Description:
Tetratricopeptide repeat-containing protein; 72% helix; mainly alpha; TPR-like_helical_dom_sf; globular; Serine Threonine Protein Phosphatase 5, Tetratricopeptide repeat
Amino acid sequence: MRAGFGRGLRRLCLWLTCFVWGIDTSFSGPLQEAEVAAASQQPTLNKQLARAYAEVLKMRPAAARSLLRPELARTPTAAGPLLVADCLQITELLISQDATGYQATIDAQDQRLSTLEKSGEAGALRAYARAEIRLHQAAAQVVFGHEVQGAWSLRQSFLQMQAVVQRFPQYLPARKTLGMMQFFIGSLPENYRWFLKLLGLPGSVETGLQNMRLAASQPNDFQLEARLILALLEETYYKKPEAALQLVETLHHQQPDNLLLGYLRVSLHKKQHHTDAALAAYRACPSGPTYLALPYLHHMAADLLLYQGQYAASARENQQFLTNYSGQHYRKDAAFKLYLAAWLAGDATSAEKYRRQIDMGGRTVLEEDNYAQRFFEEKLPLNRTLTRARLQIDGGYYHDALRTLNSFRAVRTTPLRDRLEEPYRRARAYHLLGHPDSARLLYARTIALAGSAPYYFAPQSALQLGYLYQLEGQKNTARVYFKKALSYPKHEYKNSTDTKAKLALKELE
């Protein structure tokens, strides 16, 4: 029971911590006109603190600290400086993933919360700061393996933020954070629902989106984060990539010195299979001693170069990632990608070294790491043709992938996994090329061949068929396929597949 609880909580808080720097429910309804007008009268960060917080978002800690220092000296117990100081410290910790800084961060958060508790300051900003700092603490505790404390901190933050919205319904920053928590809790797969009941945390996708949209649409100190979070959710779960890309590109044009926006440009182009644009964005990211080191950028670049068949360059980027990164997530995935680069380049000795490295460190909370660990443990040989095609599709090179797949020939001894992967890869290539009829036929073939095989090709085929039929307005057929995607009991990407299918079904209600 403890292990399942830990996995569920880690997954929830890892989703939440993606946005920590920027990033009873009946009191969370729509704002009335008078309340929106009153929002301008709510406490805000002064100009100095707003500038400091902008530097936090740009990932320039020294600049943020120099702006923050005089504010902390002038008003050491005020909510604004304490909140911005905590945002800076939690950003540094979660970006670096350096465990040696964990206890100092927790101690500083406890001190800030104690100061706020004792201060005579009244109003929404103080109440919001307490709940926000507690959420940051939950994220730190869970990421560094203290799940029980993290569960308690998460529960406190949720209830406190809910109380802020109840008492100050016009205070939009609280809507941003409460909405984010409501959405992620409401979207968790069913196999994690029991631990939410244990914590007493209600989630609601619809209410969460409503709250985030309010915070994103009205001016407030944290409107930028609300806009980014909402855009990323809609891109990931509601198939709205163009809107997210346009927002991030526009913001990047306005703030070319913002590393967070540079990172998001790379990430969004990569997710939409725009490899050339993603690499250009990677090379344009601001860098230097004034910025936080962001090793994960190298891991993303390694993937992009792998898609292009630049195996030596891909390996160098992943090696730099592993050298500079202090955390435990993505380590197994990086070792797996190093294996692929060596194996596809024909370097059997290096490939075996990296295959063994998969099992030597890191955690399996994230699906990418879990996939790598399963590859190591199950010792299933990869098919070179199918692997190249998969990478080409991930990179957006769909015609190349189809040509690669044309050389695949199944024989009597071909493993079932390979016989399922081939039509699924073809389906993905045709789907992304805008040929839905061919894609539907191949997705259906994959499902028929799979039966109850514990691989992700059939559930992903069902999910994609649901999207295709939903786009065509055939809601009943779409609903059948989304439910089918949920019905598969075990596969590599069950959590993300189930979450997407669940949210799609809610859209069809």
